[in-house]
Automatic annotation (TrEMBL):
Its main location: cytoplasm. Keywords: Cytoplasm, GTPase activation. GO terms for molecular function: GTPase activator activity; Rab GDP-dissociation inhibitor activity. Belongs to the Rab GDI family. This is Rab GDP dissociation inhibitor. Regulates the GDP/GTP exchange reaction of most RAB proteins by inhibiting the dissociation of GDP from them, and the subsequent binding of GTP. GO terms for cellular component: cytoplasm. One of its GO terms (biological process) is vesicle-mediated transport. It is found in: Cytoplasm. Gene3D superfamilies: FAD/NAD(P)-binding domain (3.50.50.60), Guanine Nucleotide Dissociation Inhibitor, domain 1 (1.10.405.10), Guanine Nucleotide Dissociation Inhibitor, domain 2 (3.30.519.10). SUPFAM superfamilies: FAD/NAD(P)-binding domain. The lineage of its organism: Eukaryota, Metazoa, Ecdysozoa, Arthropoda, Hexapoda.
Amino acid sequence: MDEEYDAIVLGTGLKECILSGMLSVSGKKVLHVDRNKYYGGESASITPLEELFTRFGAPPPDESYGRGRDWNVDLIPKFLMANGSLVKLLIHTGVTRYLEFKSVEGSYVYKGGKISKVPVDQKEALASDLMGMFEKRRFRNFLIYVQDIREDDPKSWKDIDPNTCTMQQVYEKFGLDKNTQDFTGHALALYRDDEYLNEPAIQTIRRIKLYSDSLARYGKSPYLYPMYGLGELPQGFARLSAIYGGTYMLDKPIDEIVMENGQVVGVRSGEEVAKCKQVYCDPSYVPNKVKKTGQVIRCICLMDHPIANTRDALSTQIIIPQKQVGRKSDIYVSLVSYTHQVAAKGWFIAMVSTTVETDNPEAEIKPGLDLLGPVRQKFVSVSDYYEPTDDGLKSQIFISASYDATTHFETTCLDVLDIFRRGTGEDFDFSKVKLDLGDEEQ
């Protein structure tokens, strides 16, 4: 360990593993250390099933659950957008060689007590039961406008400049009602609250395009999920980092981040000190440099049936926009199953999550739990949400935020790309990645 590194990464949560891979690809000498014996940190996948029951203090599972080792349960499940930044990163870095993905079968939104498929093109808009006949036409015109926009061609903007108009103004221009605005902002653009309404419309338009481009790749939904669970992702990026010369150490306690004149110079474990210019880490390694800004409740549910009204989908995402249930933040429901090699045959794993707003978090996720039908076993956790107190430029310690309640990876990627930009002073250059790591399938 007594060497000098450009960067030391602490923790093998998904964000840290992605950063380690990106830094290695960018030519940095990286040491990656975790106090745990396993990859994934708080975003790990738990196997066998008995370990999950033990972790939550439940009596062991009976024989009806099948073999324990057939289960891989994500503590923080999230889906990948098929055309999103994480998939681009996986393809550009060759990590896809170590992973196999399956598309998620459904994408639904909750309105008035029931769920409906998220309409994303003109045909679906006209068939959707989310809107009346006249509203469908208005929404269809809005979708055509979004699809036709070219950011570098002002002629395509019609008479609405998306860079100066707010999203609220664009909705009003097309006469879209509050319900339509609701599912557009939350189920298509994947915003977690309504702050976006007052931002420039171009940001929301980009997000809707990402949703429809992702949908176009596989057809049933815009989401992908890795076989054997998300635990495969950190290991894929760890391999990538190793190919580019990164060094990994698991089960290594971190006793001190060594500072001189307010700037990091190394990391100490026992008597050993590894020198470095920068540290990248999750909030648990630097409690004095993060602030708690909220809490997230997650409920893992084991079931022996799909969710009703999803056409018996073996995997799906349902978003409950906050206004539909009188809240400030959305509730997320995700479902994966035995087809992803994460559960025994015939079994399903659902997750309901949201940002905590009251002192009774379990009551807050009830609208999501009510959609699931009978649940055989559930595990509830409430975790604190931490954010760094500064940008890290002075100390050269760059800290990720905790994982939010969303069931997709877009916010995770934005955080990673932002940390990389702060740490290196430049945007990640995807073209730096050597694609000759093997016979890469594009």
